[in-house]
Amino acid sequence: MLEVLPETHDNVLAVRVSKELSVPDFDRYRNMASDLMRKHKETHIYYEMADVNWVQPVAAIESALFDVIHAFDYGRIAMVGDKRWQEWGAKVASRVKKDGIRYFDPAHKEQAMKWVLKGE
Question: Which of 2, 41, 89, 95 could be cross-linked to 25 through a Cys-Cys bond (beta carbons 3.0 to 4.6 Å apart)?
Fold first, then answer.
């Protein structure tokens, strides 16, 4: 399930994914990110994974392709998660992002949001 957070504005997209990331969820995310990327030089992303237990394989593949195509359209990216595979995924995806991805433990999600919003 994809939830758009209130911090989404201007060139910032803030989302929380819970339970399962499905293809329709990814399509919604991709459309929002694409819209911001067309309007702004850089799009900053806050991506929080809360109790995610499954990512549909097609959604994972589509996400990877989107990241490669738009690697230079991203600005600051923070991923918040609590599972080892999420941290590993952030490290792998970081390689195709202009400025990489910073991974944060849920205890530091306020710091992650601050970094995305202000670069601090």
Answer: 2
